[in-house]
Predict the structure.
Amino acid sequence: MSKIAIYPGTFDPITFGHIDVIKKSLKLFEKIIVAVSDAKNKDYLFDANERIEIVKKALFIDLKLNKKKISVISFTSLTTDLCRKYKSNIILRGLRAVSDFEYEFQLAGMNRKLNNNIETLFLMSDVENQIISSKFVKEIIKLDGDIKKFTTKSTIKSLKQKYE
């Protein structure tokens, strides 16, 4: 069985923290599906199609990662349903700090209750990227701050266009 992992998130926008998790997971799995959530209960800066394009540009143009090993999709379903659809039993989640753990632990437990064949694998980004959050990146760019240390060139361009 080929090992496929699902990496769900909002990616609004993608950051170097997310990218660290993707790069690390490429060493562990044959294919990674970056699943961009389009849940209606969230307030996004970019719509799902924009976020998919931003992620693709960051991964495939800016970083030149292997398109054959990464798919970028949107979803509105339960992550466990997405796993079933793509025949994956692995959900990837990134952890930045201890404060993330409680929520992620509960989420992993709920996903396990929904489908006991699913495992959640927690990966940490590199130390220099653990403080990065999409929320902070948006706040910094909104106030004309420099976000080069937090995300890719194409993502910065998309953010600047959004706030013009």
